[in-house]
């Protein structure tokens, strides 16, 4: 380096422990970057609130990503939805859809999609509000069906 008057030289010894520490930090940061890039995530989620009239069918679609491809779970009030008579789940490569057949008042609640792989997990939630025929949907909800 030249300061205008003199030339200065600096040396950095990257041998021994300093090199080993720098290499460990580099490997840790690289692993964290790979994990963040490949972790399971919801790339396009759900609205915050959905209102639907009783008796209609409701489809909720979410786009997901991750490598390896994430496992996908749909939940209602934090319990996995597994009844094929009430729900149809369709999973494609980067998209998952749940259809709720002929919604009932008791289908109201918090619905979530949970995606996970070996690098991490993520969830997206929507509150579903079912209303009776003749009633007005909640003002803050996206009306479906």
Give your account of this protein's structure:
This protein is an alpha+beta fold. It has a single domain, classed as Immunoglobulins (Immunoglobulin-like, Sandwich). It has one helix at 16-38, and strands at 41-44, 49-53, 58-65, 71-76, 79-80, 87-91, 95-100, 109-117, 120-131, 142-144. The protein starts with 15 loop residues before the first helix and ends with a strand. The mean pLDDT is 86.
List the helices and strands and how they pair.
Layout: H1 16-38, E1 41-44, E2 49-53, E3 58-65, E4 71-76, E5 79-80, E6 87-91, E7 95-100, E8 109-117, E9 120-131, E10 142-144
Parallel strand pairs: 2-9, 2-10
Antiparallel strand pairs: 1-3, 3-7, 4-5, 4-8, 6-7, 8-9
Strands, total number: 10
Question: For the CA atoms, what is the radius of gyration?
Answer: 25 Å
Report low-confidence residues grouped into runs of 5 or more: none
CATH superfamily: Immunoglobulins
Looking at CATH, which topology would you report? Answer: Immunoglobulin-like
Give the domain tally: 1
| Strand residue percentage | 35-45%
Quick description:
The protein is of the alpha+beta class and 145 residues long. It contains 1 helix and 10 strands.
Keywords:
single chain; 145 residues; alpha+beta; Immunoglobulin-like; six-stranded mixed β-sheet; four-stranded antiparallel β-sheet; 1 helix; 10 strands; 41% strand
